[in-house]
Design a protein that fits this description.
71 residues, 28% helix, 31% strand, alpha+beta
């Protein structure tokens, strides 16, 4: 998952949750045990809600990013 973006006018309607859940269910059905994503550090809380946990923090193109894993 490279990231999830929902326009301001569409936020709070469950679109991000549906996209993340779909990805999680898909990899589970394929027998894949881990799902990774990279996000900007200020977005970590969004992915914590979906069971992702920080794995690594890095500076990428002058932006603080986090690699997160769901398993």
């Amino acid at each position: 998952v490279g990231g999830v973006y929902v326009e301001d006018s569409a936020r709070g309607k469950g679109y991000a949750a549906a996209l993340v859940a779909r990805a999680q269910n898909h990899v589970f059905q394929l027998g894949i045990t881990k799902l990774f994503l990279q996000c900007e550090q200020h977005n970590e809380a969004l992915y914590w809600k979906y069971g992702f946990r920080p794995l690594h923090h890095a500076l990428h193109n002058d932006i603080q990013t986090t690699i997160m894993v769901w398993q």
